Amino acid sequence: MIFGGHRDIFEVFEGKVILEDWESLAIVIPTYKEAENMEPLLSAIKSVQRVIGRVHVYIVDDSPDEPGDTLAKAREASNLFDLEVSGIRRERKLGLGTAYKVGFKLALDEGHSFIAQMDADLSHSPSELPSMLRMLVDYDYQVVTGSRYQIGGQTEGWGIGRRLLSRLANSYYRHYLGLTVLDATSGFKMYRQEALDNIEFESFKSNDFGFQLEMAQRCQRMGLRMREWPITFKDRTAGESKMSLRVMLDTVLRVRRL
Fold it and tell me: How far apart are CA 146 and CA 238, in angstroms?
């Protein structure tokens, strides 16, 4: 049975733990000035941990080192919710792609069985994590992408202009790179350990948002078993978006280098 991504998580999984005692899920979350989102995000991750099993969160933070900053709030929430969280502070804003590389390397070095990536602004709901994990554990996929454009997926809080621009950009990326994945720019993904182990991150050309496209391209070229899982992408309610028209246009130009 493939479980629906929008049903109540405890009704679906009936309290059963997905992972075995020796397995674990790492969640890599790049951040830049996301202090106000740390408590609700980590609370939501903790709420699904009992049906997942062991979870370890890696916060890769490029924010300035200030009182009450992102990592300080993450530490407070970690203690409050009794959740395993590692904070990695970088000296300056070094790009989304490099943040994922750092987080993936740590997760692989520490032997986690499954590795997820997601945004810090709650646009990716942690309630989808168990369903995505089940696709890897029970159905033997190697990569699962949380997809706005798979049947059943959607966005909330976007105007028609932003929806149209996102659709057009995504169609361009898919056509130019020959991608089969419907949501080529999704930042909500989950991998088996061996899938990431075999990717040569040193050869990547993208350090920012284009990293998502390069990952999709690399996974497809490697012949990994991939599945898209429908999600509801919600616009952030706190903090500032790092995506802009300028960034999107820059990614359109840079995609020709891939």
Answer: 22
Please state whether 111 falls in left (phi above 0), alpha (psi between -120 and 50) or beta: left
Count the neighbouring beta carbons within 10 Å of the beta carbon of residue 231.
27
Q: Are strands 154-156 and 143-147 parallel, antiparallel or unpaired?
A: unpaired
Main-chain dihedrals φ then ψ at residue 76, nearest 5 degrees = -60, -45
pLDDT at 208: 82
CATH of 15-257, one of 3.30.470.20, 3.90.550.10, 3.40.50.11290, 3.40.250.10: 3.90.550.10
**Of 19, 14, 12, which Cα lies nearest the Cα of 133?**
19
Residue type, 138: D
> Of 59, 99, 90, which is closest to residue 209 (Cα–Cα)?
99
Give the phi and the psi of residue 155 in degrees, each rounded to 5: -120, 150
* Per-residue pLDDT reduced to its tens digit, 14-66: 557 899 999 999 999 999 999 999 999 999 999 999 899 999 999 999 998 88
Kindly report the pTM of this predicted structure.
Answer: 0.90
pLDDT tens per residue, range 102-112: 999 999 999 99
Q: Are strands 114-117 and 189-192 parallel, antiparallel or unpaired?
A: antiparallel
Is residue 71 within 8 Å of residue 89, measured between CB atoms? yes
Q: What is the DSSP letter of 127?
A: G
Contact predicate 213/169, CB 8 Å: no
